[in-house]
Amino acid sequence: MINFLKIIFSVLFVFMCYKVISTSLENNLFEQWDFLGSIPWMRATLWDFYANIFIITLWMFYKEKSIILKISIVILFVCLGSIATLAYVLVHLFKLKDGEGVKELLLRR
């Protein structure tokens, strides 16, 4: 199961990096911001994003001990979205020892 998660999260990480970089090269978000902000679905998507960031942040606060690390990771979550989230989970997946599973991934060490 852990190897499957490593593969899935790695593929998603590469895909999201590709999508963000390719979209950034096509369009400047800051030039489009007023237009995007006027679209109700875009506003709903942003609320959805921040609700998910809040949930993931609660889990990360539970897992991590250092306040400096917690604050740094929250900033990365907010600024990089799923790229930071995928990277965070991948780091923890690759830190697992042989025989450890999802339980060890989710719980504090």
UniProtKB/TrEMBL annotation:
Q: Where do transmembrane segments lie in this chain? A: 7-25, 45-62, 74-94
Ordered alphabetically, the record's keywords are: Membrane, Transmembrane, Transmembrane helix
Pfam families in alphabetical order: DUF1475
Classification via InterPro entries: DUF1475
**Protein's name according to its UniProt entry:** DUF1475 family protein
Iron in keyword set: no
Cell membrane: is it a keyword of this entry? no
